[in-house]
Amino acid sequence: MLDLVIRGGTVVTPSGSGEFDVGIQGEKIVMVAARGAISEEAGASIDASGKYVFPGGIEPHTHIASRVSEAWAGRPDVMTQSPEAASRAAAHGGVTTFIDFAGGMEGTEDGDQSENSIMTRLDARRSVFAGHSYTDFAFHFTLAGEVPPHTIGEIGEAIESGVASFKIFTTFGSKVPFGHLWAIFEEVGKNGGIMAVHAEDDDMVKYMEAKLVREGRDQGYNLHLAHNNISEDIAFRKITRLSEHTETGIYFVHTTAKEGAYAIADARAKQLPVYGETLHNYLHFTHDHYREPEGTSIHTYPAIKHASDRDGLQEALVNGTLSTTATDEYTTYKDVKLSGNTIETVCGGHNGIETRMPVVYTKFVSSGRISLERFVDITSTNAAKILGMYPQKGAIAAGSDADIAIFDPGMNKTITLDDLHADSDYSIWEGFECQGYPVTTILRGNVIVDNGVLKGSSTDGQWLSRKVAPSVLAGPVC
Ligand SMILES: [Zn+2]
User: Fold this and answer.
1) pTM for this model (two decimals)
2) Which of 178, 213, 332, 420 has its CA 20 to 30 A from that of 371?
3) Could you give the 3-state DSSP secondary structure of residue 135?
4) Beta carbons within 8 Å of 30's beta carbon, 6+ residues apart
């Protein structure tokens, strides 16, 4: 007997969308059949008539339960929202899996962790989330600064144990020098992992910061001049060159500029395994919004750029150059977010994990720019493939986890803070008119949000072991 059948919906499967019924047993999808063809009895059924049935959203870039720097917050001991709050917001937004970060950069460990092994630090981070998440979760492991040889030597073991991706920065205090990067890329490539890269040219960013300070132009609304287009161009191309020399897959987090998208397109034209993410606020706002009252609330590092970049990023998602949408979720209260107002003190990030799917749906599907299949690719499937969770996650197919977002395309909803579930007191999407909205979310067969009502528990979520498929690392597959 089946435990649950979803009937009557338009279902997006790996081989296209159609009128299917979905049979679920335990935590798994066991059948996807023509509408009305599942005759087996079921413990429960959901009528999805008039709705879309998507794989649960995958949010590949979050910073949950992370210490906010004092320079940003204006005071010590501020944390981004808890796993309970963030995953509750995720569940309401149709998201069933998120990938956060481990490695000590989150500031949740005590003392200097640089002597501790990758596995020890991973365990410490896992303990912050285990038993405290409504959705499944995983971690990119962050390598920072001059990474010692003994840590680089542990990369293979970490990949073996299910850590598929390693995050590095080419700027900020956590910048990894380029020689060290070379060694890290070689080790990650050799062991079948993938690099998640925040790429900006540190020299150019620092030069511009100093220049803007010197000229009295260091107001927050000039962030895009410090974290600028040419810096992204140079840094992305340097990273793709290193990818080519070391045969290592790259996942560029938060592509902000058309130049970044062009660099990714050039690398992919050479069949390099290079993938790009962008953020839903980069697809909507421009740096002009920084000048509005409380305008820097929209900011996420590197920076929101020009209208031509916003349009270029949209086009790159439509034409396949970019593979995923994310939010760089980093939720604080407004007093923290707006505490700093210079190019060196504006707090990054915002509460986005709940709004990503309806905003992307509205901007791209309702507007007729992409298909339902492409929507599923850029909100779920591609992240699962690139970051080593496919087909367990990101697919409505027999054998996959029964992670599902049921979406009502007829639900028009103007976003207001009262409707959101994050632990925060503002939303940059206040007033945004969604044409279509997630209504029901299922995690491994368990209905965690039922028509907008939370049914799951914060002990439901599990850590995911990940492994990138060799095909993903052999060339661009999505
Ligand atoms: Zn981030």
Assistant:
1) 0.98
2) 420
3) coil
4) 2, 23, 24, 398, 399
Exposed e or buried b per residue across 86-106, where buried means at least 16 C-beta atoms within 10 angstroms of its C-beta: bbbbbbbbbbbbbbbbbbbbb
> Which class does domain 57-389 fall in?
alpha beta
Instruction: Tell me which fold the domain 2-55+397-454 belongs to.
Output: Urease, subunit C; domain 1 (2.30.40)
Give per-residue pLDDT as tens, 393-421.
999 999 999 999 999 999 999 999 999 99
330: CA distance to ligand 1 center in Å? 8
Question: What is the whole-number distance in angstroms between the Cα of residue 328 and the centre of ligand 1?
Answer: 5
Ligand 1 centroid to residue 35 C-alpha, Å: 41
Distance from the alpha carbon of residue 30 to the mean position of ligand 1, in angstroms: 36
**169 CA distance to ligand 1 centroid (A)?**
10
Q: How far apart are CA 256 and CA 340, in angstroms?
A: 22
Question: What is the distance in A from the centroid of ligand 1 to the CA of 299?
Answer: 12
Domain ranges of the chain: 2-55+397-454, 57-389
Q: How many CB atoms lie within 10 A of CB 356?
A: 25
* Distance from Cα 61 to the centre of ligand 1, integer Å: 6
